[in-house]
Structures are given as structure tokens and as C-alpha cells.
Design brief:
The protein is mainly beta. The protein has one domain: Metal Binding Protein, Guanine Nucleotide Exchange Factor, Chain A (Beta Complex), CATH 2.170.150.70. Strands 6-7-8-9-4-3-10 form a 7-stranded mixed sheet. A 3-stranded antiparallel sheet has the order 1-2-5, with no helix packed on it. The N and C termini lie far apart (48 Å).
């Protein structure tokens, strides 16, 4: 187990958690793609008792799945940063969004789920041209 801390983009919400670094995963489901605004979500499951909000309070959006289950998606009410998802009725486990963790660079995912929904170019991402910082864009 490892102690981590993190916050939203604006700093209104901050947290501490104890996680299992071996449980880090990537989710390629279309809900995670849409909610994160990118190709996948990078996260880890955390027991409710191993997570603590340090500052701020979360706002929640309740998402009903095709199967009828309800997920509570917790985010910063100021900047919109996604912090975690959980069962809406009896949250015992949080799916913590590791992009918000200060230690995010220390974790390598050990599992990818919903692979059938993965965007196809991810397999070739190393071949895509890259630069170290924001390039000058033509106006």
C-alpha cells in the first residue's frame, strides 16, 4: 500500500488516499472517454475508508448505465476536475482518477479494461510525432 495525495486543477478540492500501486488500470469504456474528454481513464480502486477529502466538497453527477446501475461521478464544483466514481447507492469503493494525484508519474497500469472500445491509434502512439512543450501554432 502507498499513501498519495492530489487535487483538482484549481486546488479547491484536495485529498489523501492509500492505494495499491499494483491495482492501477486504464479504462477504455466510452463513458470514461466522454467523461474524461480523452481516449481513456487512468485510475485505481480505493476503499472508502482509505480516501479522505482534505479540502473542498465534491459535486456529483449520477450516471445510469445501460444495465440500470447508478454511478456517482464526483468532481470539483469550481473547475470540473473528475476526482472519483463510485456506486451511487452504497459507495464502498472509489475509482480514483489518478491524473489528479501528485504522484501520478510513479504508477504503471497493470490492466486495461473495456479494450473493445479503445481508440485504434493508441496501439501506435509511440510512432506519432512528439515535442517536449506546447508548439507554436499558426494563427
Amino acid at each position: 500500500m502507498m499513501k498519495i495525495d492530489g487535487s483538482c486543477l484549481c486546488g479547491h478540492v484536495s485529498y489523501e488516499a492509500e492505494i495499491d500501486p499494483g491495482g492501477v488500470m486504464i479504462c477504455h469504456c466510452t463513458d470514461c472517454q466522454t467523461h474524461s474528454g480523452t481516449a481513456f481513464r487512468y485510475g485505481v480502486l480505493v476503499k472508502k475508508e482509505d480516501f479522505r477529502l482534505v479540502t473542498g466538497e465534491l459535486k456529483f453527477y449520477i450516471k445510469t448505465s445501460d444495465g440500470g446501475s447508478k454511478r456517482a461521478l464526483g468532481f470539483c464544483p469550481e473547475c470540473g476536475t473528475s476526482i472519483y466514481g463510485s456506486d451511487a447507492d452504497q459507495p464502498k469503493i472509489y475509482s480514483l482518477r489518478l491524473g489528479t494525484a501528485r504522484q501520478r508519474g510513479n504508477f504503471v497500469p497493470s490492466l486495461q479494461i473495456w479494450q473493445r472500445s479503445a481508440v485504434k491509434w493508441l496501439n501506435d502512439i509511440a510512432a506519432i510525432k512528439s515535442v517536449d512543450k506546447q508548439p507554436q501554432l499558426e494563427k
